[in-house]
Amino acid sequence: MVTALLQIFIVYMSGSVALLADTIHNFGDASTAIPLAIAFSLARRKPSKRFSYGYGRVEDLAGVIIVFLILFSAIVAGYESVTRFFSPQPIEHLQAVVVAGIIGCVGNELVAQFRMKVGKEIGSAALIADGYHARVDGFTSLAVLIGAAGIWLGYPMIDPLIGMLITVTILKIVFDTSKLVFTRLLDGVEPEVIDNVKIIAESVEGVCEVTDLRVRWIGHQLHAEINASVEPSLSVEEGHEIANAIREKLLENFFYLSGTTIHVDPLTASGESCHCGHKNLEKIRGKQKNILVAYSQ
């Protein structure tokens, strides 16, 4: 926000549309921190009877708001660039424009390093992505310097062209960010996380196999549901100890793991398919098939 405020003053002095696009982008980035801060604040609340998993999903909703804020900044920047392309205006105070570009580059890089550091510490993919987003913003500020150099060399049309280039960059960020946000909303998880959880769980002494595994993000916290098969001769107490050993080992390797649901099965009847009788399972599948046929008709 400090970077954007310094830049807007120079935009008023110089009339540079490339700098205006960069400034709008920085204002948009500053505003994205607001819903994210609210989400992190709500996520600290304890689970309730209505929200038994807590309020971590608010972070994903904040991600949707962030996507639309960035998209709005791209639309405004693009409109101003196209307008200036067809209605060119003289650019003044080129030295000030250069200073503003440098301010934007340095300011965004400092924010990028801070966001990525904190994101890695708390396991927030959204915050890490936001850090890379800020780093890209620093590169767009460098584009402003190219525009200023073009004007100085006698090519004033470079200024609105740089503004359009910045707009395209913002749209690319919108696309990448929306993929991350909507993947989380649909309980999508990186495949390597699933593989690592399975390897760690199966490495625990007494675990014969992990038959079923589901992992999902709730905000920046990870939740795992595991079906682990053990020797059928073990007692309930021994099975319980193995489940605790799985949980402890996962927590050692995934500091952002908030909870685990571990179901211990005998090796002779492992997996969720064994929790329901074959006759009942066929009935359920038959009902599902009838529902799908009726829906299609």
From TrEMBL:
InterPro entries: Cation_efflux, Cation_efflux_CTD, Cation_efflux_CTD_sf, Cation_efflux_TM, Cation_efflux_TMD_sf, CDF_Transporter. The chain crosses the membrane at residues 58-79, 91-111, 132-152. The lineage of its organism: Archaea, Methanobacteriati, Methanobacteriota, Stenosarchaea group, Methanomicrobia. Residues 190-266 form the Cation efflux protein cytoplasmic domain. Its main location: membrane. The keyword DNA-binding does not apply. It is a multi-pass membrane protein. The keyword Transmembrane applies. SUPFAM superfamilies: Cation efflux protein cytoplasmic domain-like, Cation efflux protein transmembrane domain-like. Keywords: Cell membrane, Ion transport, Membrane, Transmembrane, Transmembrane helix, Transport. It is found in: Cell membrane. It comes from the Archaea. Residues 2-185 form the Cation efflux protein transmembrane domain. One of its GO terms (molecular function) is monoatomic cation transmembrane transporter activity. Belongs to the cation diffusion facilitator (CDF) transporter (TC 2.A.4) family. GO terms for cellular component: plasma membrane. This is Cobalt-zinc-cadmium resistance protein. NCBIfam families: CDF (TIGR01297).
